[in-house]
Amino acid sequence: MIKLGVGIVGCGNISTAYLNFSKLFKPIEVRAVADIDPAAAQSKAQDFGIGSRSVEELLASDDISIVVNLTVPSAHYEVTRQILLAGKHAYSEKPLVLTLEEAKDLRDLAARSRLRVGCAPDTFLGGAHQRVRQAIDEGAVGRVIGGTCHIMGHGHEHWHPNPDFFYQIGGGPVFDMGPYYITNLVQLIGPVRAVTAMSSAPVATRTIGNGPRKGTKIPVETPTTFHAMLEFQSGAVVTLGASWDVWAHRHKEIEIYGENGSIFVPDPNFFGGTVTVVDPKQSATDLDFLDHPFGCNNVTDTRGISRANYRGAGLADMATALQEGKAHRCNLELAVHVVDVMTSILKAGQTRQWIEMTTTCERPTPLTAREAQSLLAQAVP
Ligand SMILES: NC(=O)c1ccc[n+]([C@@H]2O[C@H](COP(=O)([O-])OP(=O)(O)OC[C@H]3O[C@@H](n4cnc5c(N)ncnc54)[C@H](O)[C@@H]3O)[C@@H](O)[C@H]2O)c1
Q1: Boundary (domain end) residue, out of 77, 100, 119
Q2: For the chain, what is the radius of gyration of the CA atoms?
Q3: Which domain holds residue 52?
Q4: Which residues of the chain have pLDDT under 70?
Q5: For residue 231, what pLDDT is reported?
Q6: Contacts of 10 (CB under 8 A, 6+ apart)
Q7: Domain count, the chain
Q8: What is the pLDDT of residues 79-95, one digit of tens each?
Q9: Helices (H), the chain
Q10: Do residue 235 and residue 265 come from a single domain?
Q11: What is the Å distance from ligand 1's center to 143 Cα?
Q12: Which residue's alpha carbon is at the smallest distance from atom 21 of ligand 1?
């Protein structure tokens, strides 16, 4: 298999992870970076020993087939649109875009241009989440009837040096962290039929706690607390709490309830974690998934916790799918549906309605241990 050339637009915080982890994957090679701020691109290029180009040069480069969009969410639509108009395949960080109209426009443009669009998150390809998928598909808890998920904390201004976008329209916990949870729920349970929600913005400003702007107050222009309900096409009903106004809680990230038991699902922001199934007699079993490469710990995070991190797996899967003429898993239909769910939660929070989805998607095909291994440049473990 030949390596597809990848270019990155957006050289901020997350680009470091892409530049580091892309080296793990056989089908891709990052060849250049670009940013609206040339200094940001030059600095990242120097750190990783690759070329920096202007955005226009990168989009016109013959050695690049897929352009990864790592810009801020408010720029995602325009940058992905420009990538497609330049005749390149696009892979975007989440959220795909900020409105359903933009999502549908990209879908039409990609179809007309016969180009692929992929979208993060790819954490649902992790060993833990693929093991949950296998357990559900094998009927370990019977028919899924519902669940809960909780995305709660106190926001990002304490660590991110430029956290403004988190609190602007298109930010907030649903657009920021919702994609991890909603995408994983869709891969596990299937597409959503309708949502409702209540929302609030309890404080008007946030104070930056890190970097050169430390102490600067930034305005809050979007709700920061949501209590939503999602009805899936299967009939399952899931409650979703998403907040950046909570200092502490003891909810599990995701719990799935079936007719014959429950599954406790680890944080969908990560590839690994502990998967526990509890049967009607209250007997709990932790499921093993260490045969799946994307479940094996390969990094130590800033808090000293050993984790599995294979960010870029979705991009590598898309590169392979392109070469083999197959569907990729972090695909556009899925991302468009997740945008539909997220924008409907925001709207329901304002209007206090139940909102029916106007989009749907297939559950992405499971990623087996063997398929995951084939994406890697070196065997894991
Ligand atoms: N930071 C994280 O830990 C993290 C984790 C997962 C996903 N993400 C997602 O990744 C994306 C980027 O996040 P980040 O934290 O790296 O942001 P950031 O603000 O650190 O970096 C964004 C970069 O994009 C550049 N940019 C903005 N508009 C542009 C445009 N029109 N053309 C070219 N470059 C442009 C900026 O100059 C900046 O260098 C967001 O969508 C975010 O949700 C971030």
Answers
A1: 119
A2: 20
A3: 4-119
A4: none
A5: 98
A6: 35, 68, 69, 70, 71, 72, 75, 79, 93
A7: 2
A8: 999 999 999 999 999 99
A9: 15-21, 38-48, 55-59, 73-85, 100-113, 127-137, 172-176, 178-189, 313-324, 332-351, 369-375
A10: yes
A11: 39
A12: 12
